[in-house]
Amino acid sequence: MSRSVSQKMLKEQVVTKQQLQEAADRQRLHGGRIDQNLVALGFIREDQLDTFFKRTPTAPEEVKDTGLDLDFIADLTLKHIMFMGEFRLSDLSQRIGLSTAILDEAVELLRREKRVEVRGATQFVKSSFNFIVTETGKKYGGELMEICRYAGPAPVTLEDYKEMVENQSIRNITINDDVVHAAFSQIVISEHMLRRLGPAISSGAPMFIYGPPGNGKTTIAETIGQVLPGTVFVPHALYVGGQIISVFDPVNHVPVEDMPENGANVDAIDQRWVRIQRPIVMTGGELTLRMLDLEFNTIAKFYEAPLQMKANNGLFILDDFGRQQMDPQSLLNRWIINLDRQIDFMSMHTGMKFEIPFDQMVIFATNLDPKSLVDEAFLRRIRYKIKIEHPTEAQFREIFERVCQMNSVPFRPDVYEYLIEHWYRRHNIAFNACHPRDLIDHVIDLARFFGESPELHRDTIDHACENYFVDV
Prior knowledge:
The protein contains 21 helices and 16 strands. It is an alpha/beta fold. It folds into three domains: 63-154, Winged helix-like DNA-binding domain superfamily/Winged helix DNA-binding domain (Arc Repressor Mutant, subunit A), CATH 1.10.10.10; 158-164 and 219-387, 3-Layer(aba) Sandwich (Rossmann fold), CATH 3.40.50.300; 393-468, no CATH class. The strands form five sheets. It has a five-stranded mixed β-sheet with strand order 3-6-7-11-10. A hairpin with a 5-residue loop joins β13 and β14 (353-357). The longest helix is centred in the C-terminal third of the chain and has 15 residues, at 435-449. The protein is globular, with a radius of gyration of 28 Å.
């Protein structure tokens, strides 16, 4: 829990300064997070803590509540109505994500500047007015588009974004053994491995998952994402130093339906934010250093947030680490402060630099020896290093049986024993967790080609192994 969140708890009288100090003293003796020690000392209940962190952004009622100035809102409004023809305030509200009361002020400003005009009305109330952009408005709107073509929902301020990320921190989550077992029930994994993974996930700390290829490192990393509880809010965009940064990404962010708390109206939620599942961002060999910086679109004239920013409050998986187009040491130099202090620094083409939270669980998955990739200083900042070994013979059989069941291929113990004796033991082939899936895929391909139902026979197993294994 960050210092600013602790200060906010003090300001809102959730706890006292003395209680925070006692929790800090206990933390030094017993470890854990400050919030966990507050609960252990009985200063706050877990449900109260949960309510404090799970805050829904409230819709701004006035222009000053948005953190934006009226001129900016009016300019954004004009860019929207360039494509709308006739419109009402309610139409604008749905597109821009601000209340009709705020947009009424923006439209009134545009009317005074003769950039929009009233076309008609069904009643003598502003909400029924039909507006249309004027030629003067079209000309000025075109000039605005040359400066920045962003015409999405209104952005939020950097300060509001930082506060939201801190409230939703991955380090505030609470995960127990039952949750971990439930999430991993769909894969074959030892109890010993779950006991190692559980505390690592609960900590939210960086993790190295390494070991021989084809044994489930990526699957385990993705399953960890399913363990992360709750939903979080991500902004459509940020407004920083007069520039727009697009943050919400439908590729990496999965929206969930807004569920107002305590019977509140959906309209009470700030529509500039999107409620999503905790994000899971995965990248592999295609990762470059440029993808970790703000990307300025020279045509649209606004920025797109980098991958790690989209992963805030969630999970960032670097798959096949060490096989990127960049040298692992370059990533070390770029992220050593991020991992240590949970902050990142962004730079704009204007020369402006600013700080954002680096709040995510980072998982490095690799087939290579971690010591051959990065130095000791970097490894020290990766709290958990977990090696995924080859499955045991019993685990391999369980995986094989599950794969057969999922693909409606009847499992035959005699054919399975033939596979083990004739192929694995005779040719000294190591058990890999991916082999059952790949071999059964070959059996299915063969059956489909001949228009038959897939079945396990010695000849179908031989066909699969001959086409799958190399140099046997």
